[in-house]
Amino acid sequence: METYCKFETALDILVGKWKPVILLRLFEHGTMRFSELQKAIPDITKKMLTQQLRELEYHDIVHREVYQQVPPKVEYSITEYGRGMHTVLKAMNDWGVSHIEHLNELYGENRLKEKGSR
Amino acid sequence: METYCKFETALDILVGKWKPVILLRLFEHGTMRFSELQKAIPDITKKMLTQQLRELEYHDIVHREVYQQVPPKVEYSITEYGRGMHTVLKAMNDWGVSHIEHLNELYGENRLKEKGSR
DNA sequence: CAGCATCCTATCGGATACTG
DNA sequence: CAGTATCCGATAGGATGCTG
Fold it and tell me: Which residues form the HTH hxlR-type domain (chains A, B) (predicted)?
């Protein structure tokens, strides 16, 4: 079996404390301004939001549109290419949902996050 | 769209510097002893190997079989449940492979890992 | 408004030594 | 052989303040 050498690559791109939430919002709302993202994700700082968006932008998952005006306006959206992640995200999400149930069966409810999950 | 809330869960379980390699080896070889895993992954330390295996074990992805004998013998394998991740891993791997090509088109070859990918 | 720069800390991961 | 314990450095992430 010569596969599974590059799923680490996918992992790298998705990892980051806020990437999941950011992607979720952008997939839901389509296009959002920087400030809208901030409001939608209350606990995130500007620094983190910028940083994570830049990484996603580098990987061509997210598009950054700057409007040259005062006050500034910048809009973020999922790229055409980024939509190709839909399958992967869905696969991961579905597995995640069922896995939570599985863990509950194993250890009982309300025990996630307590042990072993770093 | 009410989905994509839990793909973060899948992410958490797969994240860890060595989890991808460990899973890869176990999927390939089926069952491996602690020392075999060490040899198969030269740069990993015992501490890291133990730690990552314990996390995977907690999530019921990996099974730990202890043989009560001297010298000790412990074997690791993917659980029945763990095999259910196959779909997800494959989806991620396939996307990873194509994404590397995509990045090469965007930025040219040999430029991965240089920018933005944390 | 949408950031960047600076500083700080918490967590992750590595090196090394010891043990049943 | 298969770990555990301890220490230690690197890095991810957070708080705060400044700016075009």
Answer: 5-104
